[in-house]
Amino acid sequence: MELTVLKHNGEDTGRKVTLSDDIFGIEPNDHAIYLDVKQYLANQRQGTHKSKERAEIAGSTRKIKKQKGTGGARAGSIKSPVFRGGGRIFGPRPRNYSFKLNKKLKQLARRSALTYKAQDNSLSILENLSFDAPKTKSFISLLSSLSLTDKKSLIVLPEGNKNVYLSSRNLPKTKVITVDDVNTYELLHADVVVFCEGAVSKLENILAK
């Protein structure tokens, strides 16, 4: 599969980039995608939820009424879960939601996501991108030239560029990442994935290992 390299103004540079079929043309594995996205979302959870159980409630330990003769159920503590202000039964506790996935499965998931994007014609190649200074207006102009203003876009850089990142940080529908940070969730979440020219070969080297 070949894609045309675009200039920053959206015009054709005359150059083409050939995408590897081993990365962008495989038989997609939906279950691998599911597991990788599930792991990504699980890793975003802080897991700091906590409620107090009866042993952790501050309150008197006095027996609140006599054992027999009241006509009601026995009650030994105001901290019991059956009373207002008492502890919670089996409440949430801090926990770690992350789980392990094999490296080859994660690579298969990313290749599958890239294949889906290639099949949907949702991939673009842009000549190398850099700004002299952070300027959101310049980045908006770039998106407008590429007809991405109203679309969720993922811009993939070959290496970190602070000015490009800062220029796009305030735009809710655009995310800028480096090749090393490409993941299945971000690929599928975006309507269009834009690779800078030098990022394609670097990505293919990462996923071919």
TrEMBL record:
**A Gene Ontology BP annotation from the UniProt entry:** translation
Keyword RNA-binding on entry: yes
Q: According to its record, what are the GO cellular component terms?
A: ribonucleoprotein complex; ribosome
Keywords, alphabetical: Ribonucleoprotein, Ribosomal protein, RNA-binding, rRNA-binding
- Entry superkingdom: Bacteria
Molecular function terms in GO for this entry? Answer: rRNA binding; structural constituent of ribosome
Disordered as annotated region, ranges: 45-77
The annotated subunit structure for this chain is: Part of the 50S ribosomal subunit.
- Recorded family membership: Belongs to the universal ribosomal protein uL4 family.
The UniProt function text for this chain reads:
One of the primary rRNA binding proteins, this protein initially binds near the 5'-end of the 23S rRNA. It is important during the early stages of 50S assembly. It makes multiple contacts with different domains of the 23S rRNA in the assembled 50S subunit and ribosome.
Q: Which NCBIfam families match?
A: rplD_bact
Q: What is this protein called?
A: Large ribosomal subunit protein uL4
Record gene name: rplD
